[in-house]
Amino acid sequence: MLKFLGRRLAASILIMAIASTVVFFSIHILPGDPVLILLGEQGASNPEVVARIRGQLHLDVSLPQQFWLWLKGLAVGDLGKSLENDLPVAEVISRRIPRSLEIIIAGLVLAATLGIPLGTIAARRRRRFHGTLASALAVVGFSSPVFVTGILLVIFFSLWLGLLPSSGYIAFSEDPLQHLLFLCMPALAIGINFMGVVTRVSRASLTDILRRDFIRAARAKGLSASHTVYRHALPNALIPVITVIGVRSGNLLGGTVIIESLFDWPGLSSLLVHACFARDYPVIQGTLLAIFAMFILISLLIDLCLGLIDPRMRVQS
Amino acid sequence: MSGKKIARLKHFLRGHFSLYLAVIVLAFVAGAAIFAGMIAPFDPLEIDPGNILSSPSASHWLGTDEIGRDLLSRIIYGARVSLSVALAAVCLACVFGIPIGVFAAFAGQRLENAIMRIIDVFVSLPEIFVAIFVLAFFGNSLPTLIFTIGLLYFPQFAKVAHSMARSIKAREYVLAAVSLGAGPTRIIWREILPNMWSVIIVQISFTFSFAMLLEAGLSFLGLGVMPPMPSWGQMVGRLKDYLFNNPWPVVFPSIVLFITILAINLLGDWLQDRLNPELEE
Question: Is this complex's ipTM strictly greater than 0.90?
Answer without folding.
Answer: no
